[in-house]
């Protein structure tokens, strides 16, 4: 099967770009993510493919570093732009155009930060999507997608499924099976990252419940997905890695709950993965200060 992907390197790069949504340079992770997304919504699935392809193609045409392209680094923010727009809005022609343009722009912004050696994570996706959501809400009459109003039916397994639902919500998927598939997709690439992510999702749900957040949204994984990403960044086999995971996850959860409770980013569509980026940046800064002091 590896020979097949060697013959179609563009497809390989696109799948790795989708896998990099959860920091996994793994084509099979990307393929499972794609399957999980299509299970939730064909529009989101097509949007992810188009936006990731647009980001990867842009990087190739602008002759960015080939090893970075091969690793999927120009696909993940682009992928999230695509799935966010398809999830939030009815997919009109304008939305499909913006999915392509947003994917291409995400690659350009990603490259800028890579050149500056700044660990930007999903920040290009956040900035582009905030701007597009604000503009679409204020200057167009495109209705929201049906997915936004879909009724979530409670079940007796909600407490148990909350942990994997956190994985699903990273890519805007509320389906139980999608969350399980996403967890499995990370696990086949990095078991330690998947397990830390699972623990982070549980911690995010638990702390948010103590903070009085709506139980329905907690069960959906909406208070766990940012914590999942923060845990994956610092996941490792050393004992100190566990400490950094705990710090990053705690900061991310605090930022997430604070922003949501104060409705700080409602005008631009919501927090998206900003709590993850902010919590991770702060943790990296603390880590840097600690290492300097130790030296």
Automatic annotation (TrEMBL):
The keyword Transmembrane helix applies. One of its GO terms (molecular function) is urea transmembrane transporter activity. It is a multi-pass membrane protein. It is found in: Cell membrane. Coiled coil: none annotated. GO terms for cellular component: plasma membrane. Keywords: Cell membrane, Membrane, Transmembrane, Transmembrane helix. The record marks 273 as: Important for channel permeability. Its main location: membrane. Signal peptide: none annotated. InterPro entries: Ammonium/urea_transptr (IPR029020), Urea_transporter (IPR004937). The chain crosses the membrane at residues 31-59, 71-89, 95-113, 120-139, 218-236, 243-260, 272-291. The keyword Flavoprotein does not apply. PANTHER family: UREA TRANSPORTER. Belongs to the urea transporter family. This is Urea transporter. It comes from Chryseobacterium pennae.
């Amino acid at each position: 099967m590896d020979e097949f992907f060697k013959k179609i390197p563009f497809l390989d790069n696109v799948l790795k770009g989708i896998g990099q949504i959860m920091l996994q340079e793994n084509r099979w992770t990307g393929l499972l993510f794609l399957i999980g997304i299509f299970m939730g919504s064909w529009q989101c699935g097509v949007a992810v493919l188009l936006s990731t392809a647009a980001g990867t193609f842009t990087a190739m045409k602008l002759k960015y570093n080939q090893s970075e392209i091969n690793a999927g680094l120009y696909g993940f923010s682009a992928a999230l732009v695509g799935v966010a727009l398809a999830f939030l809005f009815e997919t009109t022609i304008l939305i499909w155009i913006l999915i392509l343009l947003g994917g291409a722009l995400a690659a350009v912004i990603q490259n800028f930060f890579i050149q500056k050696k700044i660990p930007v994570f999903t920040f290009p996706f956040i900035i582009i999507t905030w701007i597009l959501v604000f503009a679409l809400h204020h200057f167009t009459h495109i209705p929201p997608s049906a997915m936004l109003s879909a009724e979530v039916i409670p079940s007796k397994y909600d407490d148990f499924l909350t942990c994997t639902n956190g994985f699903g919500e990273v890519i805007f998927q509320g389906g139980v099976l999608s969350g399980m598939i996403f967890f499995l997709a990370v696990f086949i690439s990095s078991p330690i990252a998947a397990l830390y992510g699972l623990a982070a999702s549980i911690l995010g749900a638990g702390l948010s419940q103590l903070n009085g957040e709506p139980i329905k949204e907690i069960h959906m994984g909406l208070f766990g997905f940012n914590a999942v990403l923060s845990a994956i960044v610092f996941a490792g086999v050393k004992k100190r890695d566990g400490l950094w995971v705990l710090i990053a996850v705690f900061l991310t959860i605090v930022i997430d709950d604070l922003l949501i409770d104060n409705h700080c980013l409602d005008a631009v569509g919501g927090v998206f993965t900003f709590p993850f980026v902010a919590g991770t940046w702060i943790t990296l800064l603390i880590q840097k200060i600690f290492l300097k002091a130790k030296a």
